[in-house]
Write a structure and sequence with these properties.
With 283 residues, the chain is α+β, with helices and mostly antiparallel strands. The chain contains seven helices and nine strands, in the order E-E-H-H-E-E-E-E-E-E-H-H-E-H-H-H. Strand 4 and strand 5 form a beta hairpin. The longest helix is centred in the first third of the chain and has 36 residues.
Length: 283
């Protein structure tokens, strides 16, 4: 009879009625509280992830792609600055025996200034008919153009430059450089704020800057042709130099970087849209 009211432990000591039940209930209650907290934390994590996805947050993979495209654009910016800051856009070379038998003059200029260089004929390749190249050692004299101050044209080898074309080429290059800086600011904002909206603005800036840089090269080449046609008394050999190559590559790289930003700003993957995986196409 008493066995129905008392429980016994393994050592034979009696356990008061309800003691085991209370302990079990306490354990179950603690477990329930901990489970409730875990469920609440899980729900909060889901809500935070959902909030991050709806607020335009970027994943690590997307952020890495943006940084890679930004590096491509920065290469274009560096090449543009290098080309705009140097004066080896075109090299002008008269015949090496045009003046005397010991020295000859070569000239080279860019968007901002022109240089004349006195070279020794003995240093020039005997098979070369014109004076140069301009990189040979010699006495150099460089002056900035007066296009942007007094509006005067420059005279080189009795030939006159075309002021309007030179100024137009320089202004296009400067405006393209301004768009590059704006695009870089947009990318920096996109990475810091986690908003893909700025990628579209950056793509427009970089593509337009690349087009302006290439258009500046075309206008500059036209100015060189106009310069050569201004006077025919001095025969000149002309060639576009390495500064033009830098600017040309810069324009192409900037357009490529802008296109990459535009692809990253799309809400879908063009590659997966054009070439879906086999399992998706089969289904």
């Amino acid at each position: 009879m008493w066995s129905t009211f008392f429980l016994h432990e393994e050592d034979g000591r009696p356990i008061p009625p309800g003691a085991g039940v209370g302990a079990g209930a306490g354990t179950l209650g603690l477990t329930g509280v901990m489970g409730g907290r875990g469920a609440g934390a899980g729900a909060m994590g889901v809500k935070r992830r959902a909030k991050a996805s709806t607020s335009g947050g970027m994943s690590d993979v997307q952020e890495g792609k943006i940084k890679l495209a930004f590096f491509v654009a920065i290469v274009g910016v560096v090449l543009t600055v290098l080309g705009l800051g140097t004066e080896y856009w075109v090299v002008l070379s008269p015949p090496k025996n045009f003046y005397n038998n010991q020295t000859c003059l070569a000239a080279h200029y860019g968007l901002w200034k022109g240089c004349t260089r006195t070279l020794w004929v003995a240093d020039i390749d005997p098979e070369r008919e014109s004076c140069g190249p301009a990189e040979l050692p010699g006495e150099s004299n460089c002056t900035y153009f007066k296009f942007y101050t007094t509006g005067e044209n420059a005279v080189i080898f009795q030939k006159t430059t075309e002021k309007s074309l030179n100024v137009a080429a320089a202004m296009m290059a400067l405006f393209g450089l301004f768009l590059m800086v704006t695009g870089a600011i947009c990318i920096t904002t996109a990475l810091s704020k986690g908003e893909s909206f700025f990628l579209k603005a950056a793509s427009v800036c970089f593509i337009l800057s690349g087009l302006l840089i290439l258009l500046s090269l075309i206008v500059f080449n036209q100015s060189v042709l106009s310069f050569l046609a201004s006077d025919h008394s001095v025969p000149l050999h002309h060639e576009l130099s390495w500064s033009v190559s830098c600017v040309g590559f810069a324009g192409a790289i900037l357009i490529l970087g802008g296109t990459l930003f535009l692809l990253l700003a799309l809400p879908f993957s063009p590659w997966r849209r054009c070439f879906p995986p086999k399992n998706e196409s089969d289904s």
